[in-house]
Structure formats: C-alpha cells, structure tokens
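Hi C.,

You asked whether I'd gotten around to modeling the 244-residue construct. I have! Everything is below, sequence then structure, no commentary in between.
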Amino acid sequence: MKIYFKILVCVLLVFCVSLSSHAQDTEDYEYTREFIWGINKNTNSGLIGGLVFKYSKAITPKTFQTFGVELVNVKHPKEIRYSSRFTGNTFIFEKINHFYAIRGQYGREWVIFKKAPQQGIQINGHISGGPTLGIVAPYYVEIPGQNDNSRSVRYDPNDITYNTNDIYGTGGIFKGLGESKIQLGLNVKTSFVFEFGTFKNNVTGFETGFMVEAFPNEIPMLAFVENKSLWTSAFITLFYGSRR
C-alpha cells in the first residue's frame, strides 16, 4: 500500500503544480519544442530497463503536451540467476517467458522551477499514460545435445530433466520472438524531471517517478510462483536531447 500512497501523492503534487502554472503570469520561453531520448532503470528491470523517447510541444509558456514511447524488458521480482557448472553461462531457472513492453504515452508537463538560459537546474512535473503493447516470448535454454554439442529448447517447467545441472545457459534474449503472444494493457506514470545543461539548444538530465501498468490477464513469466496482471515500479531515466 505504501507505493500506491506515494503515487497518489505525486499525482496530487503535479495536479497542484498545473493549477498554479495557469494562474501565474508568464514570460516568453526559450523553446517551444523538445525531443529527448534516454536509458531507463526501474525496479522491474535488470541493470538497464530499456529506451525512452519523448517529444514535447508548448501549449503555454509553462505547460507542454508530451508524446512518448518506451521500449522495456520487464523482469519478475522473484527471478534468480544461476551459473552453469559446465559453461559458466547464466540462466534463470523456472523462467517460462520473456516479457517486453512497448508503451505509448500522452501527457502534460509543467515547469515548476525555471532555470536561466545557460545555467542552473530546471524542475518540471510530468504525468502521462496510454496503451501498452506487451510481448510475451517463450524462454529458451541451452541443454546437452549430441556429440558434446548443446541444443536450444523452450524451457518446460513440467519436464523433470530440466534442473540446474542440465542447463548450459540461456537461449538468448530474442530467442522465441517468432512464437510471441500479445497482451494489451494500460500504463500511467507520474514523475519529476530535472534538467541541466549549459547550452540553450541542448538538454541533459534525469526523470524519476512511479508507474502503474495493468493487463486484463496475468503475465506468465515464472513457473510455480504467483504472476501478476498489475505492475508497479519506481524508475529513473537518464536523458539527452535538443530543443528549439
């Protein structure tokens, strides 16, 4: 319940910021359009969660409409990585599917604290949401084959021969994409954006906040554990971009 409370607080803060932004007198702003791309890290990912792209267009001097796309690899929180005693390669035992999410997002961004043109920090509040295209791809592992060669097979949690001593490693992160199934869902995120940079036409910084993502059915990622249809995560995105 704590994470839902934090998300609610962030949403209320951003909403209050939006009201105050419309109420304040504004001056001409340095840019009306912005495009950024970034690398995402979140609590449902490994070292790198995925890629983020966002385009912003000014509505008022301190209010922007945003269009975003996120491409991420989602991991189950109970995944455990093992190393093969034969090859040293790693694999995730009892994993049955990869899960990739392509998120479309439309939202609003408001300037909370405006920086000088070539110095300081700018702080924005952001809220967005939209559809998620979930790609559920079978998980493949390498096991012993003929003539001391390995062969790649779809992991079967009901086959007792698949234990940690019989697996040489993972079959590859994109193995099985041709057998994927599609899950449609919805996502909502709220965040704060911290922008830096010493040039007027370039922007660097990071975005941090919370996301909620829901699907009509559970996403089968691990065998013999509870899988989820509602996902929550905290995230941080390091980004770079240009504006004009």
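If it helps when you're writing up: The mean pLDDT is 85.

Thanks,
B.
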